[in-house]
Fold this sequence. Notes:
The complex is a heterodimer of chains A (429) and B (64). In chain A, 41% of the residues lie in helices and 13% in strands. Chain A is α/β, with parallel strands linked by helices and 429 residues long. In chain A, the strands form 2 sheets. Chain A has a 5-stranded mixed sheet with strand order 6-5-9-7-8. A 4-stranded parallel sheet of chain A has the order 3-2-1-4, with helices on both faces. The termini of chain A are far apart. Chain B is built from 2 helices and 4 strands. Chain B has a two-stranded antiparallel ribbon. A two-stranded antiparallel sheet of chain B has the order 2-3. In chain B, a hairpin with a 5-residue loop joins strand 2 and strand 3 (32-34). Chain B starts with a strand and ends with a strand. Classes of the chains: A alpha/beta (429), B alpha+beta (64).
Amino acid sequence: MNATAADVALPRLLSGFAEGGMAQLDRHLALHGPLPSATALPGDALVELAERAKLRGRGGAGFPAATKMRAVNASRGRAIVLANGCESEPMSAKDALLLGELPHLVLDGAALAARAVGAELVIVAYEGPNSDARPSLEHALKQRRAAGVDAVRFELFAAAEAFLTGQETSLVAQINGGAPRPTFIPPRPTARGVRRRPTLVQNVETLSHLALIARHGAEWYAGVGSEEEPGSTLVTLLGAVNAPGVYEVECGAALQPLFAAAGGLRGPLGGLLVGGYFGSWLPAALAPALELSDAGLRRHDAAIGCGVVVALPAGACPVAETVRVAIYLASETANQCGPCVHGSAAIARTLHAIAQGTAETGALADLARWTASLPGRGACHLPDGLSHFVATALRTFPDAFADHARHGPCEACSAPELLRIPPPSGPRR
Amino acid sequence: MKIRVNPITCQAHGLCAELFPEWIRLDEWGYPIINPETIPRVLQAHARRAADACPTLALLLERE
């Protein structure tokens, strides 16, 4: 990897990261400096700044942050900011890292977001009652109260442990006292969300970027990345690399330097999963030239999503990995929408039969039909994500699926699991 | 005008596909697959009839 200006400029978000504990307020302020005051950087200027920086959501959908802020500002009523730290995606680790190690960056960004939409209340949501996030957030908030840095009130919310817990409307529903289930849109949370008030839901990484953009400006932010996608982003890199973990890369970065930063590959590559469980399987042959940019990934019908990249080792079985994740995703349905309840189960069941070599003829055609007809037909994107995950697996590993359909499980099927599935959290209604 | 279904409310009664087959067909579990395009004026009365007939009021007509 050549030492370019961009390499020197990174890490940004992770610059405050140090082994052995969260970044305390004094260290955080010494590193990044204080936040600009509301006089120096009022709310409307912040929205414009987010727009000029082309800041986009890092929760998976990549929605422009400024557009969301404007939608909240166009709604009637006092707004609420909801900092979404519910990772949900089992393979992603970046949001937990930010909440646990760099909470002041998240809280800075949330306070700024509150300024941008005129909110007095920020709710920080994290996944799971036993998460490491809570003590770190509580400690950080105590430090901030003592130092008097915030003009807003913070509340913490422990969200349910489920794949759909961080889905925007599902998170809002939980905070409002309901079950962790997505709701139908309209209304969008920007119009009616927490406590029926206009709610700005932003991923905690998005907010962390806002915290630095507010201090250093949109031009600084664009000092790395491309013109279309300025700035940096967090990637959770897993699988056949020597040092799996969370890495900060410039937006649109190439895959190879990322592998190099992670100590290189441990062996030959069997395939790639880009974007996590709502993402896409890609053939290993694409890896040498792959760019993790919007355009570079769109060319292969993929997107960076929540920033998870998994390097599948050549020895692993893509069929076994795909089937386990498909069964998990199907089991995480909120049981609300018919096409998802029936379609997801049918996909998982049929894939399982193919992997066992017990599928009936026509199983692959069934899968092709379901994965094409399910997207867009649920209240949330679970059927879309599952369909795409499975369709890209079938497309990327056609021989492996055909072999399993004919001969049943392969030797690698019983190898240790690569893609992580959370333990069942017990029956949900 | 476009027609959309609230998938949470829909209970697969299937009346919509009977009343408006030009735009709505059912999947193998009885849930509607709806043409996302703009409904031509001549068919809009059918769209209204289908929306009115839905027992769970799951169909939404959206003006553009």
